[in-house]
Amino acid sequence: MKQKPCYILGIESSCDETAASILNHNKVLSNCITNQEIHQQYGGVVPELASRAHQINIIPVVKHALDEAKINIKQIDAIACTQGPGLLGSLLVGNSFAKSLSMGLKIPLITVNHMHAHLLVHFIDDKNIKLPSFPFIGVNVSGGHTQIIIVKDYFDLEIIGKTLDDAIGEAFDKCGKTIGLTYPCGPIIDNLSKHGNPKKFKFPIPNVDGINLSYSGMKTSFVNFIKKEKDNDSKFISKNLNDICSSIQFSLIKNITNKIELAVEKTKIKSVALGGGVSGNSYLRGFLFEKEKKEKWKVFVPPMNYTTDNAAMIGLVGYLKYKKNYFSNLNHVVKSKMEF
Question: Model-level pTM greater than 0.90?
Answer without folding.
Answer: yes
